[in-house]
Amino acid sequence: MEKKRTVGLVFVDGWADWEFGMLSGSINEWFGGKVVSLSPSTGQLRSIGGLRLVPDRGVATSENADLDAVAVIGSDAWSATDAPDITPLLKDVLARGGIVGGICAGTLALARAGLFSGRKHTSNGAGWIESRLKTYAGSEFYQDVPYAVRDGHVVSAAGTAPGTFAIAFLEALFPEQAPQIAEMREMIGREFQAS
Description:
By secondary structure, this protein is of the alpha/beta class.
């Protein structure tokens, strides 16, 4: 029997409500995985919309050796000069062959960790990452596109692309489920067709 895949979603205060729902819901409901919430801080967090979340775990690698993937959810807090450094967690998951993703300002955590070096990636528009970090390894591989970008085991997206972020992440995590993921992609696309 195949091991159930476990995905950690990293939240900080001010997390974006809309950026992970399709990803977390489909992992649990449609693909038989497990999702856990992680945070570098303890206690309750509040979303942009005012919802409260108490994370399941911290971000130490010792707490997360079971993770098959991790996704960093956006928040303006990632743009701060004193933003949490979750580099050890991201590098550990990637080194074990896991999937690492970042959406919206969550891409800053990946950039700080050097995960865009030599990899195609995207974020909230050309120059957006540099406007927060000044410079980062791999900036020449930036793709100015409105949908998620996957390069190997690294997935990135603008905050306006939660649907394609979920699809690209699921494709990387569940390659054997390609037909079902293709159905999801088609279903999401229908929402944007003119009526």
